[in-house]
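Researcher: I'd like a candidate sequence for this fold, 185 residues long. If you have to choose between options at a position, lean toward the conservative one.
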């Protein structure tokens, strides 16, 4: 099982590199890895398991965060309208996005970053993601709000981009142009 000791922390160069495409169909090993990544996120949200294994709660995980430079992400979270996103994706790609931006009003964090970095992270308000899911199906996801933010955070990891790279250095709480806030709970 994946635990916090498997999570690569900032400063490790893999987090600043572009990850490699996964060959399709994915190998049994790639599928197994992605399943373990989803299980880790679920475990991190389970109070008892998280306490026992000292897991920090997360809603997503990208393969570079476990030291694997492959284009794979896992998510497990509920959107504001209670829609569950729980799957793993190979080669996710943003194929279109809105002009409008959004940002999480509470800012973002990252399992690979052991400190708080304050500021707004500008994200596209709406994105369409094409990917191969864990079941091997080609999917097109139309995402907005919180779901769009989470997928952008994970896809950024595949491109060597950290959330704080997108925070305005001079004015961290500057509201991005053409942006509406996204509030969690
Ligand atoms: C806040 C947190 C996340 C995404 C968007 C907003 C994910 C945190 C866990 N991760 O570090 C996953 O890469
Ligand atoms: Ni992260």
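Model: Candidate sequence:
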């Amino acid at each position: 099982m994946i635990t916090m000791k498997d999570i690569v922390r900032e400063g490790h160069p893999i987090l600043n590199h572009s990850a490699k495409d996964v060959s399709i169909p994915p190998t049994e090993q790639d599928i197994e890895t992605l399943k373990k990544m989803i299980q880790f996120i679920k475990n991190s949200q389970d109070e008892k398991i998280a306490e026992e294994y000292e897991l920090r709660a997360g809603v997503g995980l990208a393969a570079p965060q476990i030291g694997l430079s492959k284009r794979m992400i896992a998510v497990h979270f509920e959107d504001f309208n209670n829609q569950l996103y729980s799957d793993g994706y190979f080669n996710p790609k943003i194929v279109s996005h809105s002009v409008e931006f959004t940002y999480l009003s509470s800012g973002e964090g990252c399992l690979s970053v052991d400190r708080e970095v304050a500021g707004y992270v500008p994200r596209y308000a709406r994105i369409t993601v094409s990917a191969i899911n864990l079941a091997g199906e080609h999917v097109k996801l139309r995402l907005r709000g919180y779901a769009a933010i989470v997928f952008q955070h994970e896809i950024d990891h595949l491109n060597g981009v950290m959330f704080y790279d997108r925070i305005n250095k001079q004015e961290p709480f500057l509201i991005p142009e053409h942006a509406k806030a996204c509030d969690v709970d």
